[in-house]
Design brief:
The protein has 93 residues and is mainly alpha-helical. Helix content is 37%, strand content 9%. The relative contact order is 0.08. The model has no long low-confidence stretch (mean pLDDT 78).
Amino acid sequence: MTRNLIKKIWGATPTLEAIGDITCKPEGSIEFSSDANKQFSSDIKNIFHGILEADHDANSVEASGLPQEIQRAAILWKGKLPEPYTYLADFVT
């Protein structure tokens, strides 16, 4: 991916407007798709309101009211490992 290609794709837009896949291929690879961007936007729109309306002061991620997708992705809550991630404490020193 060259600077000229990036300028051509994004133009004067100061923000990233694509979802990318940066692989670990030895020869290097960056792939992106405007279709992925549209799909992500559509998917996140469905849970965005729940993220904003959640109780971020709740004692647990379960009590927060966050959408289930976000609760499952939360590896830490208030600096502590929620279920099902408590087993990770054995690996942290």
